[in-house]
Amino acid sequence: MINTKFDSxxxxxxxxxxxxxxxxxxxxxxxSCKQECNVAIIGGGxxxxxxxxxxxxxxxxxxxxxxxxKGRETIDDIKRPVIGEAAVSxxxxxxxxxxxxFAADALFVMAQRYSKVPLDIAITNKxxxxxxxxxxAITFGDIYNVFPFENTLAMLALDGEQLLQxxxxxxxxxxxxxxxxxxxxTPEGDLVEALVRGKAIEPSRVYRIATSDYLSxxxxxMTALALGIDREIRNDITIRDLMVQYxxxxxxxxxxxxxxxxxxxxxxx
Length: 269
Prior knowledge:
- The chain is an alpha+beta fold.
- The protein has helices at residues 4-32, 57-79, 98-112, 140-146, 160-172, 213-216, 239-252, and strands at residues 37-42, 45-50, 82-86, 121-124, 136-139, 152-159, 177-179, 181-185, 191-196, 199-200, 206-212, 229-238, 265-267.
- It contains 7 helices and 13 strands.
């Protein structure tokens, strides 16, 4: 079994390496372009004289190119390791898609380990999935391309009425990445039916949901999530960390990543 705390820490270290590299590059660029200004007194008036940089232009460009090359090598070392394998290519489209279903299912499985109570649903937004996942070897760089944001794990509770509101919001945009929900929507974006694990939503029941800190604030038109109670925001665990852990654990069992459309969101003809 993968040490999830270690993987989370490793993921954070990788992200900080990226940030430190770019800060260093910016500082180096500013330093190489710095000009010195002196004031000379001529005929009773002040004239500003700008001296050329101590480094000539060719030398400065070479220095910057060397910094960029070294940084690119560091980034490649971080992104290159293979963490698993995809049996099929995973693409994104609405109302549901293999990539969206994988993201929601993996979020549900991994978030359950951090929840103090059983989860009912997992939801993430299709807009946060920034690249398709190709068939074959999966590298850390591939997952970074799909999940480039520093969104962290959030868990909260909605009552049935609030959950129905959320389902209507999901229907209005043509579908999102969901696990545990089964929706029927119209082409115009209206909600026809909403089930949780095959059962009708009970208005008075409380449903526990895993999502991202970004969506938990009601962003990306999922305003109902901002109404959630019993919130637990895990700023030490990014959604990307969870995806990496999920794929690594599949690989450790000799399994490949696979996902398909299964009818969890249907458009009524």
